[in-house]
């Protein structure tokens, strides 16, 4: 892939002030194929922005929400999607940090910049724009900005990117360097940023330290690359899919463990590979049994487990409280501890200068109309990210 094929920005901006009719992939009920529909997208209201989406990709959160595995996702019809890149088409009243023509990526975990959370360096949560899977309308008036013949179509994770034009709250958009290829930048909306951010922010891995990454999907592979960039001396990847070995090594993995091939628990193997256990483990699966193995794989006294995977099971954490008295710690990670407007521009710079490499994450490309095929590829474990283009 080369530079983003934006040949005429004026074409993208010719719709300012008008209701736009465009294509969207609409989910009418959990687990049923998305249908390509003509939808009406309203103009942005106060502190909102309308964006022309040029590229979008599918994350596992889109997949599990579409399948109905999360009870919160019950508002239909709905437009899923939260990894994307595009161009600002128009801005609403009060928006000062974005203008027509800006290259942007939407982010499900926004940043208003003024609340107590945004002002703190201890969290990347925002009082107003933090991720909320229950939310399906806009902040301003509690209504949707997208409809089909007058019927509201609900929003998803502050974003809704499976559509040619979408409206977002301004706090959920990040302006990026226009020299960055927009096709690849869609990956920074969620998966890659979450993985590298967990390593850099939530764990703060330092040169020479040791790491184990459980689950080598896009987030896990990003965590591996983040650990390599930080100079970790040992990076162990754990996955039941042998096909992940080559990708893992390309990202910086030094060792690979397949739990299906072991005759003893994973943590015992890792404790043998790195005497006493690794400094940090990252659970990227969303499985409590895997989480326990990740926890026990860290060194007592100071080991830290970062929980990145989304756990939809009603089960509670598989630990006895006294196990925490060994000195091991566990932290949860939301979007890798990244404040979207504050931190993402610097991550983009790492992509532009070649420090952070994105090409290998894009395993497939399809036209937008083939979005159901892209979902199937992800569901079957055949793709990391399938890039959809309009």
Automatic annotation (TrEMBL):
The keyword Zinc applies. SMART domains: PKS_ER. Keywords: Metal-binding, NAD, Oxidoreductase, Zinc. Pfam families: ADH_N, ADH_zinc_N. GO terms for biological process: formaldehyde catabolic process. GO terms for cellular component: cytosol. It catalyses: a secondary alcohol + NAD(+) = a ketone + NADH + H(+); a primary alcohol + NAD(+) = an aldehyde + NADH + H(+). SUPFAM superfamilies: GroES-like, NAD(P)-binding Rossmann-fold domains. Residues 31-384 form the Enoyl reductase (ER) domain. Its cofactor is Zn(2+). Coiled coil: none annotated. GO terms for molecular function: alcohol dehydrogenase (NAD+) activity; S-(hydroxymethyl)glutathione dehydrogenase [NAD(P)+] activity; zinc ion binding. InterPro entries: ADH-like_C, ADH-like_N, ADH_Zn_CS, ER, GroES-like_sf, NAD(P)-bd_dom_sf. The keyword NAD applies. Belongs to the zinc-containing alcohol dehydrogenase family. Class-III subfamily. Homodimer. This is Alcohol dehydrogenase 2, putative, expressed. It comes from Zostera marina (Eelgrass).
